Please model this.
Amino acid sequence: MTKQFLRFTVLIFISVALFSSCKKTHPLHAYPDNMRLLNFTKTTTNSTSPSVTVYENYRFVYDGYNRVSQIIHTKNDGSSNLISNLTYKNDTIYDTTRYVNQSTLIEVDTFVTDQKGLISITYEPGLKTEYTYLGKLLTRKATSSTDYFTYTSYNANILKATNSLDANKNTDCTYFTDKFNRVGDYLQLNGYLKYGFNFYQNDNLIWKLIYPNVTVNIDYVIDADNKITKTTALSVDAAGRTTTEVFDLQYEQFK
Model:
């Protein structure tokens, strides 16, 4: 059981809200406001020898309020398949994860939201993280008074993440100036996978991430309705080794 999946499960229903919050006028086709993410597959390959390909699938079930109530995660690398159930009570979300077809409890994480619906505190076993925003944009993520990230933004896009203790965690961000942010953005998808929430609500789609030792280039396949159907990220490290991540997204209509 990975922390990535646990963090991914929380508040993914925000993807539905993002269809509205990121909706913009297009000269030929309007972005659909009655579509939500049904599932996606993630295929990861690398250039190491021997090369390994990992396939993952995430399936989402929604409740009557159009919030994700269940997520099923399967993977081909021999790790356990997981199912997560989300319970919403006032400003708190409880994320309960078990093995598929088993009653054994793996973990319960708790997430507290602020008045804007943004996650302000996450509680995981042995870890408390606090988040600060300016409007919808993340400005700080702290696990202690000395260990934290600060985020610098310009024109409604986060340009840089700076870690207080380790410069190797610093990140510079570049965006497509002609593509607005929507479900399928690479930061958003990996925000779900890593944090369980889209902290990176930028105005534009991310194009490139530059770390001290790795550069990530991202590309998108966008259909006639402006929906992202495929997200591809190519990571190249300082030694020239590559990792390719391909996300294939499927949607469903809702009333």
